[in-house]
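Why does residue order matter? Because the sequence determines the fold. Keep that principle in mind as you read this record.
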Amino acid sequence: MRPLNRLWPGLLGALTAVVVQVSSAVAATNTWSATTSMNFVRSGHTATLLTDGRALVAGGGGDTSAEVYDPASATWTLTGPMNVARGRHAAVRLADGRVLVVTGNYYNPTSAEIYNPAANTWVLTGSLNVPRNYPTAVLLSTGLVLVVGGQNPNTGAALDSAELLNPSTGKWSLTSSLKTGRYYHTATLLSDGTVLVAAGFNPAVSKGLLASAERYSPTTGKWSSAGSLAVARRDAMAALLQDGRVLVAGGDGYGTFSSAEIFSPVTNRWSSAGSMTVAHAAATATRLSDGRVLVAGDSYQGDVYSPSSGTWSATGFMVYNDLQQTAATLLDDGRVLLTGGYSNSCDPTGDYCESNISNGAEIYSP
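Structure:
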């Protein structure tokens, strides 16, 4: 039998290792950590999870660049360039794993192109029927892509038109129009295959802000009313909950909101979802693997909504603070990658302001 004094070093080492591991695990919960920075600064870009677990980040830098993040190695790799520079465009992953990006260029507001991960290249697809900026895009259960609303690049008017892309043919076709034209709105695919479009901005209405919501049926190709939010808002964040309801949070209304609301597809009505710990607009909403929702961006911390308790809680402090027009991706391991964004800063005399755009990237560990 060994003397106890000879066992102590090994025991202490093992206990220390356990304590360090437990401490690291605790520290990693509900916290943000920096990862490798992108090759280019970006805001108003898109982030899309690829089928192999990597994340594609495209546009938002005032150029045609796009890059892919590999969570396994925490490295960024540039793709081939897009054919058109894009910002505040829309992106969806298609059923075959390719990624569609739509509009986002004032000089070419009908363009769309598709990224092929296998070839690492971008190819233009057919042009939209209506020039538009700031639309939303949703992949329908039919495999078609629904593009909704946006701003007329020539007049600034809110568009009520919507159109469908058939990815197999690359052809766009108009579908029925919204009841109210809008941009800076949200669009969410519901569990029954319909699409909820909510809130947004229309300069033709009083104060511009919209509280109305509409629902699109791919079966009939028609829009129907989906009630109204209690608070008119633009640049809000939306996420589909596991039970089929939709959370819409924050946004802007000549001041940033912390309030949130929930839409029930069963009753077609809205109800309060309480208030976040801080206000967020032009940020991101990501449903986590456990069903909670992370809202992040435009603040020094994120907010997490628990549908089971109906309450909000704060995350730890973010690495990059107060950045709007960020992009988020839920990684396969349950963490969330948040990239880019911009913050407004002024010189001490207040003579001018300029946008500071970030190439930073950070990861949230639930």
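The longest helix spans residues 4-28.
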